[in-house]
Amino acid sequence: MEEDKLQxxxxxxxxxxxxxxxxxxxxxxxxxxxxxxPLSLEGKDLLARARTGSGKTAAYAxxxxxxxxxxxxxxxxxxxxxxxxxxxxxxxQQVQTMIRQLTAxxxxxxxxxxxxxxxxxxxQKPILMEKPDIVVGTPSRxxxxxxxxxxxxxxxxxxxxxxxxxxxFSFGFEDDIKSLLCHLPKIYQAFLMSxxxxxxxxxxxxxxxxxxxxxxxxxSQLPDGSQLQQYSVKCEEEDKFLLIYxxxxxxxxxxxxxxxxxxxxxxxxxKLFLEQFSIPACVxxxxxxxxxxCHIISQFNQGFYDYIIATDEHGLEDPATSSQxxxxxxxxxxxxxxxxxxxxxxxxxxxxDFHNVSNVINFDFPTSVDSYIHRVGRTARADKPGTALSFIxxxxxxxxxxxxxxxxxxxxDCVLKPYGFxxxxxxxxxxxxxxxxxxxxxxxxxxxxxxxxxxxxxxxxKLKTYFEDNPRDLQLLRHDKDLHPAVIxxxxxxxxxxxxxxxxxxxxxxxxxxxxxxKPKGATVMRSSFKKNFRSKNPLKSFRYVKKKHTxxxxxxx
Length: 558
Ligand code: AMP
What we know:
- This protein is of the alpha/beta class and 558 residues long.
- The protein has 22 helices and 14 strands.
- Helix 2 packs parallel to helix 3, helix 3 (56-72) crosses helix 4 (89-102) and helix 6 packs across helix 8.
């Protein structure tokens, strides 16, 4: 623990908050928390640029809760005192969860409600009627409730937080934010949190902040080389599949891994390809219902899955243009505006807190520097180490240079090192990969995509109703099951020893190659209790022969 660092218990925080912080196991504040919490407790407006994963949610949530606890000592009247605007539903849920953890010992005094979800306005109305102290929502959702007079902010609001402000703009929430500001009181304390301080954010700063303190905490927006290792490896389309197969199948990539691709269609192509080798992975994209997306993230965080194949915000654009771009027919910056059937408020690479991600793999390279930072920022969070590996085809070389130039700045630690992998050593696997690719036809991808959406919609309904009453069963619903529209060739499941390159033999984890299917605890419990019930109800299984001595004697007498 750094001695000259201001500690949580030196910030004048309520004991209940300190206890919750201790329960979270946070030994000391992160840099942004150390700077932002005291300033906001003094009542200052803040504009903070902190790299993603720096602990910025608690940097505003802690002072929010502290101020509400303080003001409740004098004014007991229930009112909405704080509003947190977020760009996505996933982030809304995450912020709510963090606030709930921080208010674990004062949940009666500080109530929080996340209204960013897709439920009907009327279904959310009763929640708002109770005037939760903190309301979290997307600008459009909050605006809709204000218009419907379910939410009145102009008298009671004391604090406004705009989280991931740069993303709010790129998602087109500018007008909603501006019209919302007309419904706020004249005086309130405001926090603007953003990964990048671009022109849009500067403009927003003029609108909402009064004499703010600006915190630009890190020169680099990603952790340095001691915490985050960044690599790139040159490989063309077919080689990308060959390499990912080798990395995952031979267990050369260890720990939880996020694999980013450029389009929804690519998610399924890769999932079906991996399925051919019995490598389970989940798919996460803007087409899936929001409940499923949140569920996937929460299960991933609980350690159910090792691999998620995700599109980032570019999954929002038209898949046709996106696949064109991924094939190198253009590399202009993408617009990020919504495509048909996609969720405008979807955001995987931004803001979402995937826990303990060891690796981020850019299967397709991101199309902007911002996007690279947000994707790679999913690993090496707080003080944990992480690795980012980018596959680069010749059409992505320019983008790589762009990212490298932007990252280097004054921090030479940040460059992407070449990944020392000899592609020629894995040539022996090429035939298997081609074999697998042949089964992953356009039609199979299309079918998988439809099947997954149908399956997830069904799950989603169940999640909403059934799982509300049965939270334990929630665990049983896995999202990395095989989709199977492609023909499975059983021999591809195993890797014969003679195919493993000599140089990799010592690295290959024998455990990874053994048949093993980890089941969540719940599933095991379910299975054994099912067996028990089955046994007790099935007379053939439950029948026990017991010799009854006295009945035998009676029979003899008669
Ligand atoms: P955020 O940048 O708010 O998304 O937080 C990133 C991650 O850092 C989350 O998983 C937090 O639980 C974690 N975190 C936040 N503050 C601290 C802290 N003071 N010590 C350790 N972990 C933290």
